[in-house]
Amino acid sequence: MSINTPEELEKMRAAGAVVRRMLDAMKQAVRPSVTTRALDEVGAAVMRDLGAQSGPQLVYKFPGVSCISVNEEAVHGIPGDKELQSGDLVKLDVTIEKDGFMADAAETVAVGDVSEEKQRLLVCAERAFAKSMLVARAGFRVSEIGRVVEREVRRNGFSVIRDLGGHGIGRTIHEPPRVPNYADPSASQLLTEGLVITVEPIIAAGSGRATVAKDGWTVCTADRRPSAHYEHTLMITKGEPILLTAA
Q: Which residue ranges form the domains of the chain, and what is each CATH number?
């Protein structure tokens, strides 16, 4: 969607603030032996207290409030009885609806002591996002975001998962435009002031090829190598974008 009024911006900021509060609470609860279902319940309690609803449940009937994915699980992991172990990478992906507007963000959290490769992967996803903010501005094309993301990821010896990427958001979870994490020439739309999108490097230590698990939801790396995910919902301006899901 494009934000056209101060009232719309205020409501998008309110939705983004709920996502931030949920993510912060879930991150604080991450530790060895905690289950992904318990993490989901932490986020759900915050969501309910703030008068919001789960976007994935509303739009797709997802079987959890938030998507929680571990190690080779890249996105859309279903919360359950899996216990986190020291050395895991857990991806917390939160999308909510509040007062008719949706916001979406994700972070990758290290559980205890992780390998040097996993730590570099986590940092790389965040750095690729940060560098892409230089071109997530009015007048650039959507494909420029992906070009910057993939260049940074490849420079660090990792791969983007090309099947996954960012998207427009606002009135529902997935709106135009598609925001690939590579320089896709078909992503030629010009970014315009007020446009709301997610930018979300989803990267892997291996080939970057992906497959869907038997549960029909969880997207995993085909070679079972670890993955990382970092995402914000943002509004395009002529200068630095406004990160609606940041602290």
A: 6-243 (3.90.230.10)
